[in-house]
Predict the structure.
Amino acid sequence: MSMDAVLFWFLSIVVIGAGLSVVLMSNPIYSALSLVMTMVGVAALFATLNAYFLAGVQLIVYTGAVMVLFVMVLMLFDLKRELQAFSRGKITGFFKIAGVGVLAGLLVGVITFTTQKTSLIAEGSPLAADIAAQAASGADNTKILSENLFLKNILGFELLGVLLLVIAIGVVALSRSKGGTHARD
Amino acid sequence: MLETSMFSEIGLNHYLVLSALLFTIGMAGILLRRNLIVVLMSIELMLNAVNISFVAFSKYNMNSEGQVMVFFVMTIAAAEAAVGLAIIVSIFKRFKEVNIRFFEHLKG
Amino acid sequence: MNIGASSSILSLIIFLPLLFALVISFWPQRQTLRELALGFSLIQLAVSLLLLRDFDSTTAALQFTEQFTWIERFGISYFVGVDGISLMLVILTTVLMPIMILGSWKSISEQVKGFHVALFVLQSAMLGSFLAMDAILFYVFWELSLIPMYFIVGIWGGARRIYATVKFFIYTMAGSLLMLLAIIFMMRLTPEVTGGAISASLLDFYKLEIPFIAGDFFTPQTLLFFAFAVAFAIKVPLFPLHTWLPDAHVEAPTPGSVVLAGVMLKMGTYGFLRWVIPLFPDASSHYAWLFIALGLVGIIYGALVAMIQPDMKKLVAYSSVSHMGYVILGLFVMNVYGMGGSLYQMLNHGISTGGLFLLIGMIYERTHSREISKYGGLAAAMPIFTIFFIIVTMSSIAVPLTNGFVGEFLILMGAYQYSFTASIFAVTGVILGATYMLWMVKNIFFGPAGEIVKASEHDPEHRLHDMSKREIAVMLPIVILIFWMGLFPNTIMDYSKQSINHLLQNKQNYSLEVK
Amino acid sequence: MDHQILIAVLLLSPLLGFLINGFRFRSQSYVIAGTVATLAVTVSFVCSILLFIELLALPAESRRITAHFFEWINLGDLNINAAFVVDQISSIMLLIITGVGALIHLFSIGYMHHDKGVTKYFSYLNFFVFNMLILVLGDSLVTMFVGWEGVGLCSYLLIGFWFSDSAKAAAGMKAFITNRVGDAAFLLGMFILFMTFGTLNFYELNALAPTTMEASWLGAVTLATLMLFIGATGKSAQIPLYVWLPDAMAGPTPVSALIHAATMVTAGVYMIIRLNPMFVAAPNTMMVIAIVGAATAVMAATIGVVQNDIKKVLAYSTVSQLGYMFLAVGVGAFGAGMMHLMTHAFFKALMFLGSGSVIHAMHEEQDIRKMGGLRKYLPVTHFTFILGWLAIIGFPFFSGFFSKDEILWQSFSSPRGHTLLWVAGALGAVLTAFYMTRLMALTFWGKSRVDKNIHPHESPWTMTVPLIILGILSVISGFIGVPHAIAEFMGHIPNYWQQWLAPVIRPLPIEELQSVTHTLSEEYMLMGISVFLAMCSAIFAYVVYTKKKHIAENTAQSLKPIYNLLDNKYYVDEIYFGAIINPLVKQSRNLWYYIDVNVIDRMTHVASDVATNGGKLVKTLQNGNMQQYAMYVSLGLIIVLSYVLMR
Amino acid sequence: MSSMGTTTFEIVINLVKTVLIFLMMVQAVPILVWLERRGSGFIQNRFGPNRVGPLGLVQLLADAVKFLNKEDFVPDKGNRFLFYAAPVFALIPAAVAFMAIPMSTPLTVGDSTFLIQGYEVNIGIVFILGISAMAVYTMLMAGWGSSSKFSLMGAMRAAAQVISYELALGLAIVGVILVYGTFNLTEMIVAQQGPLRFSGFGFDFVAPTAFLPNWGIFFQPLGAILLFCAAFAESNRLPFDLAEGEAELVAGFHTEYGGFKMLMFFIGEYGHMMIAAGLMTTFYFGGYGIPGWTTQEVYAAGLSMFGNETAASVFNTAIHFLSFNIKFAIFLWIFIHVRWTLPRFRYDQLMDIGWKTMLPWALFNTILTATVIFLASQYIIG
């Protein structure tokens, strides 16, 4: 049992547990905080996958910004405990739960039955050796990521920038108390 | 499949299964929860699950495309959350309601 | 092949309006918007006149071609070129643009910026579809032209504008989908002639020999022919696919009507001339009778129905159906007079009907009514307007020395060459055309003062002002063109003669050279 | 080159006048407008005279002055030039148009001086002259057609000149559309000629005209000439398209004189004479022309007998006289037709102007039953009117006598003539004499029935001078073309007219000419009969309408059905409206309603309804429950994954 | 996780070191509190704590004892879990982030090298930013868990403020990253060694005197100011302590807290202050570097002094640790000084400064830096 394996199992349990509590907690604030936990776990998982930069970004963006918004909104709404946290309807409820169960089973099944190998790269290929070397060094691949991002996918990156601008304007417009989508009240 | 090494040697499949489980948990949240904000959070959960897959693939394929994709997904998730919350806030301000069934009235 | 080596004036012509649209959409000053748009349209006109200057009318070859690979995998390229068939339509488009902008000076008062942007985008799309030599490129421009038109009618239109736009859109879309299918089918055939690669180039399409069996409807050429023909026939519009036109015209704002009648309908007839006849020579010869018959029905039906319309715009719209029937007739008789006349008639119709719509727009601005029965005796109140209206009317009913005569005369001659019977039916249109137009002129301008004129006499607020200087400036180019084209048709027909002769002589194995 | 300039000046001077007056159409100064317009036409007249003199100087066989300005339409084999030709035929027309035109312009100054639209009026008038000149001078059928339609347009504008009267506007429209019917046929005729002979140029056509007669009704030449003739019936108001001309009297009277009597309506005759070789080659067409001409002559005359509007009488008389011209060309007497064209231009213009003078004096009163005894108020008008009257009833040695007599004789004697044609012609002459005398009697003679409030007065000099000049012309113009028989009788006066026209007129085929022979005595006899009958009828009319009014009334009473028939112009208008126009309009409405609205639109709507209802059906799935949507998504995912797993 | 060492010895030493650094941070807090109180006393012309122990140094110990003895109070309607969790979470991010800051040159003992920081992260800055971003939750949890209007509003204010200023902070750091071309803090410090030099546009400039160090402040003056200002807001200190604005909100999100829980909040706050001071030092003032001497020179001096590599390394580490702490202390003092010098902003002013002043300037700084770096590498002047 290597350090990596220990970390993985630990983080898996954290992430799954926190994820479950997101769904199951009847108090939305707890859900949100559980989600923060999940996010942190995911960030750690990223780190185990040598994606340190993404781990950092995950922390900044998700826990530092997105989830703060959620939590703030929830706290502002002051919803406390919900009486009916879950949708009503026995038949549809059954279908939903069964559907989710089946889906989980199917997904896991598909993954385990279709991708037998641990890596998609053929054994013995030069690439595989590279991977092994990289995995061993634990080197950060931030530079590779940045080159990919800013050279190859620059258009997508710029488009995202535009998207964010649009979103920012849209959000401001939506949350203005005057005008906007609803009458003043 | 069930071998002893399954616990000690962590490979791509482990991450994928983890991602799948997280994804289905998120899906369950979307299907079952009534609070719109929680539904939105479940979506974030699903996106995170997918991100795990991406990063795992990225690592095991020695290809940074996956990470770039994660980057994009994060950005879009942030945008989506912002807009979603803005909408929810403006509706809440007007109707004092975040129940997802209430939003059926908006279908027009 | 020397592609793209010459100047890139065609791309300039196509994309300059888009640039203008962009500039207008970011123009901060609301007051100077119209002047700006007018200036831009004049620049565009000047550029297109450069094209006219450099055009070599002694050859039927494609000129000023530009070709760049667009989607390599499917052989789709950005391929534009101009020849005698498209040249004048391009000029028509650019000439009408400043007139339209000047004509909408007063009538469009809301969302001025959006309107001009839409106009310029529309211009770009129309020019693109006239100049595109690649099937997919053509299709893209063809569809693009719908969108600004949709907005022009839908936003600045009349009371039933939504109904009209939807109808317009659905009709045209239905046709163009057929065309897209046909284009894709033909692209799949192209490896035969290109030696393996798929191509969407029109020149490669021309090389195709699509099997044809007379009498069997389900042969490729016949099916393709009808797919294209229906698409274009809707746009023309050919009877019985014409009902969108009156609605669209009635609801459209004045410039919308002008561009619709002036240029958009020509896209259909241009399609016949550029695509249908050269691509499917057997089928078009074999089914020429059908289109001639429909053209004739269109001529007579349009005229008869125009005669009983109570609404000016509707009347002119149906007259468009009638006039475009002439164009179709001229195209399918497949002789030099018919085709030359058709090409000329396209321009005529653009100018005369455009002029009529402008004039109707001017009167509508004053009275907010288009009901013919409410008018009467307008000639006394607005003499200059009357003069212009009558001149344009005379052009529309093809009185000699106006442009209308030349086109109609040639088409009728072509029709006679095809068949005596056809020409007998066709000349009926000459009589009926005069009937409905003069009926309208009489009821609007002559006779005792009608409801509106009377109201204007008593009410100083609703006094009918005669045409302003701006309005005269709008109509003057049209009138000048009417007489110029009536007096010196050769100056315009010379550009297209070679192309028409080339088409007629090599109908069976048509090909275009690239100059 | 100087010919070209001359012709250009000739053409452009009226156009210039039109433009000058057209651009200052708001002006109400009748002096400036009238002077400009009259000067413009006078300049043209001078040019015409100069051209005529030059023509005289040329040898008889090559009397032709051409001016080629630019290529007009040039496509395929079609090559039409803006080219103009002055030759024997067109020079005569030129003189008539510009000469009579100038006089009528002069007359108009006086007649229209009180009208507000006087400048507009003169500009139209000049434009008409311009178009008429193009019609006459054009060297091809298409160029002629330009003028042909152009004069139609001017006629339309001038008939509807007082447009605020709905009936007058409608009359203009009626004129234009009726002409259009003819024009459509004219176009067809052109096409047939072009496709057969490959040209539309008059000289080339005439040179190419077959010398063998075409017997078939469906031969190209016959068909083409028939079509052209239909065009001519429209323009020249023959059966069946004459209906517009009486209505056209709604326009100002000088217009009636210029357009609807002297010039435009004769265009059809002119066209046939222009293309006479072609018509000669189509005997069937000639026959039709002759019959239509004769029928029109008689029918119009019968209607003229009962009309009470002074201008209507003259209008029907014009139709009738035009019938004579067609009768002439129909029997191959092109020279005679042309001659009658000219004389008719003089005396009918005179009479129209005279009637204008009367109407002017009577303050727009046109009903002859409310006139009478105007002789003493309007001496000049009366005197000149008498000259016109004598000319039209064919009083010996007045101009009308020569031309009409020649026509009658030709209709009898020509190989393509027929006794019945002569009978019709003579009957027409008798009727003409009757109704013209009736007009004279009711207007000028007898007792005054003038309203007491109206004080008739003689017109100013601008109006009387043209009357006098035209009066003189009406008297003497006949002598330039004295018929053979009378020339014999008068001492061998040469027939300048025939000599002048001979080079451009193709005689009937020699074998036909040889097949009939007539003697001089026959001619004298027939002349005598027709003149005698006409004089009798004139005297009868004089008696009835000045002395014994009751005879007319009794006759009208006793022949009530016939009187009504005539009074209502044989109900032709009603038949046209009832049989063609109204059903057409009604059926158009049905057409629109049933085809456009109920079939095509309905189909579109059904298609859209199918889509809409289909959408409504699927809409129930989309109930706004987002979780349900998510469930669909996950179900889809399950299905896809199951497939992947099962595979 | 190889940074934790390969041999058992290394792992043990590393773990001990980590704990030490954490303790060091925690123990710095009482000193800082004492310094603050004494300092404010001097600034305001009074004494401050001076009774317990020499110069009142033991005062804090007494306070700690008092805190520990206080009643463990939970508001009636409050959320018990969150109320307890909040102070614990207040401590963690601050500590974790602080430990990523290198405080001296690595210490080499035999074959083993020990970093004088909690652990080394390749993406140091991003990591620190990410972790410190989580501090918001403590405020929110505390504010909401207290179930008190003042607390909630304080928490909201604080959260909004932190999020707002995080942008300017991040963008200011982007300039730093651009200048040094790395995320790694140690590499940044190494890059600031030696005399001031600038190469670009085709010429090299080296400062004539070795005492003009190659510090970031010369390249990023604007960035430094922005970062420092933002750091005030991030750590909720005056003039940006709107969250606790006593006049309005009693004490902000920790109104309901007392005793040891309160103390933990204090530690968290001071922790943030220390992170800010550490970052300022590292980014702009050469980190543990000494102006005039490079680490190699110091190491060589140690070697010549002691003749032993281990001793030299220890000497080197110690000298630089001192250097770092001096700079660190100066910045901490500036924090304290500012707190007692400037008045508090209004909330709208705060937001205006954040969004309308600092963010644009930070953007400008970023763009300017990027442009200059690009041009300097592409174009040659003269």
The longest helix of chain E spans residues 8-43. The longest strand of chain E covers residues 197-200. Chains E and B do not touch (no CB pair under 8 Å). Chain E has a mean pLDDT of 82.
